[in-house]
Prior knowledge:
Blueprint: H1 7-12, H2 17-26, H3 38-50, H4 56-65, H5 67-70, H6 80-89, H7 92-110, E1 121-132, E2 145-155, E3 161-168, H8 177-180, E4 187-189, H9 197-205, E5 209-213, E6 220-228, E7 234-242, H10 245-250, E8 255-262, E9 267-273, H11 280-288, H12 291-303, H13 314-338, H14 344-354, H15 361-364
Parallel strand pairs: 1-4, 4-5
Antiparallel strand pairs: 1-2, 2-3, 5-9, 6-7, 7-8, 8-9
Helix pairs in contact: 2-7, 3-13, 6-13, 7-13
Amino acid sequence: MANHTTVIGNLLSHLERSDFKKAINEYQGDKRVRTLSTSDLLKTLVYGQVTSAFSVREIETSLAANSPRLYHCGLKAVKRSTLCDALEKRDHRIFEAEFNALATKARQIAGNTGRRYKNPLKIIDASTMELCLDRFDWAKFRATKGAVKLHLKLDGDTLYPEQARLTSGAVHEVNEMSNLCGKAGELYVMDRGYIDYKRLYGIELAQSFFVTRMKSNCDYKVERVLFRSKTEAVRYDGIIRLKGKKGHEGYPSEIRMVRYHDSEHDKLYVFITNNFELSAQEVADIYKERWQIELFFKWIKQNLKIKTFWGTSKNAVFIQIWVALIVSLLLWIHKHIDGIEVSAQRIIQTLKTTILTKRTIAGLFIQDVLPDIPDTNQLYFQGFEN
C-alpha cells in the first residue's frame, strides 16, 4: 500500500480516488484485468511522468531496478507488454475524469485567492504537439504531419489548469471555444485566433466577458468616443458596432474598442471587449496576462512528457497528456496546501531524483535536506512562484 511519508506516496495522496473509481466502473477500466489495475496504472504513469521516462521500456527498467523500495511507495514492477496493452485498452476518459476532479479540488483551494478584478480571470489558448504521421495516422494535421492539440482554460488568478480538451491537430481553436467559455460571470482573455463573432456573442449572452485583440480587417462604425489621446498609453477608448454580414449578424450588440500604445516595443494594440466597467488600462493589463498560458505550455512541455509518447494510438497519447496534466495539478495542490515557497520548476527537478525516498514533499524543501539542484528555469510557470 502507498505510504504517504514517501515522496511518491505523498504526491499521490491528493488524488480524488472516489471520482477515479466511478470513472473506472463507468468505462470498465478493470474488466478482465489481472495484473495491472487502472489505479496502479495511474500511479505507474505518474512515476513515468515525474522521472521523464523516455519510453515504456524505461519505465519497466527503472521500476525493476528499484524493486526493493516499491512496496512502501505503493508501486509495483510491471512488464513493458502489460503497460503497452493498458495504454491501448484503458479508456482515456477515465484519466480525464481524474483531471476534472482534481481541477475542482484546486478551484476549491484557490477560492478568491489573488482575485484582482471583479470577475474571475480565465486565460484560453491551445498548444499543438506535432506527431509523425506514419506512426500516428489517426492524427492527420497537414499533408505530411500529424498533431494532437491541447485546448486549455488556465485560471488567471492562481494559474492552475482548470479545464482541458484534447483533439487532433486539425481542430481549430475556435471550435472548442464554446466548451471552454460561457460560465456566467467569468472574464476570458484570448488571442485573435478565437475571434468568431457569433461565438463571442455567445459569451455575452451567457453573461460573461471577454478581452481579445481586434482583427486588422474588422469593419465597424463608431457609436461614441469615451477617451482620446496622442501622448498617453491609452490612445483611444470608445463604443463601436460591427459592420458586415459576419460582424453585425454575429455580434449585433455594442462592443468596446481600446487602442493602447506599448512604449517599450513602440507598438499599437487594438483590443475589443464586452466589459464596459473595466478601465481602458485594465483592459490592456488583462490582455498581457495571456502570456501566462504560454509559460504554462512551455513549462509542461519542458518538464513533463507530452512531446514524445509511450504509445502510438489516440487512446495512449491522450492518456499520457491527461496524466501530465494530473501531475501539474498535484504539484499545484501540494504547493498551495503545504505552503511550499519555491517554483514548480524547482519542485519537479527535485522530485525527479527523490521520488522513491521516505520523505514528504514539503520536507524536501527544508533547507538542510534540499538537494543541490540548480533552479535553471525560474521563468517558466511564474504562477507557481510565491
